[in-house]
Design goal:
Keywords: Membrane, Transmembrane, Transmembrane helix. By secondary structure, the protein is an all-alpha fold. The chain has one domain. It is built from 10 helices and no strands. Helix 1 packs across helix 5 and helix 3 packs parallel to helix 7. The protein is globular and about 45 Å long.
């Protein structure tokens, strides 16, 4: 339990910081952040605060899907956007193209690590992840199909509102899956160590 709590409390703010790096890079961000950027442009709120509000709204969509939030779900809504906003307020502007590319790459890597930490802590999925699994359980959609439908819709809406879509968006989509996979293999607290498996067997 102590390890799980530490992973959760480190992973969530790191996730926000990683997203902030991709935002500051200005080369394109993940679909949900594209939507948050678009809404921020029209509301005058910071991207991080909009991210928190979006998380709360998505959580409401769990009700008809009969998904149950965990402690990690609630903390995700409160912490990720806040860390994102605070990091954006502190980050220096990236002037050169190389600095922006490095910022994007570092952001994707940090989001992958952070995802491994907080998902591996097993305190409940993030609000957006729960939406995908809820659609899978209630409507029978494959998870990949539910994710694709939701994220493409969110991406299109965010782009229409003025969010940043670019090759960084494609890079994020291509790299984040493998990054999370590798980090989860190391950080998933539900995985049994080979030695422990041999002892039980």
């Amino acid at each position: 339990m102590p390890r799980r709590i530490v992973q959760l409390l480190i992973g969530l703010p790191l996730y926000g910081a990683g997203v902030a790096l991709t935002v500051e890079a200005g080369l394109g961000v993940d679909p949900w952040t594209v939507l948050a950027e678009g809404l921020a442009l029209h509301t005058g709120l910071g991207v991080g605060w909009v991210t928190n509000l979006l998380g709360a709204l998505v959580l409401l969509a769990w009700i008809p899907l009969r998904e149950r939030p965990g402690a990690g779900t609630v903390l995700n809504i409160l912490v990720v956007g806040t860390a994102l906003q605070l990091t954006l307020d502190l980050l220096p502007s990236a002037e050169s193209v190389l600095a922006r590319i490095a910022m994007l790459g570092g952001g994707i890597a940090l989001v992958g690590l952070a995802s491994g930490l907080y998902i591996g802590a097993r305190f409940g999925p993030g609000p957006r992840d729960g939406l995908m699994t809820g659609l899978n359980r209630r409507l029978g959609w494959p998870v990949w199909q539910a994710r694709a439908a939701v994220e493409l819709t969110v991406l299109a809406l965010g782009w229409l509102l003025g969010g940043t879509v670019g090759w960084g968006t494609i890079a994020f989509a291509a790299l984040i899956g493998p990054a999370v996979h590798v980090c989860l293999r190391i950080l998933d607290t539900g995985r049994r160590e080979p030695a422990a498996q041999a002892t039980i067997a």
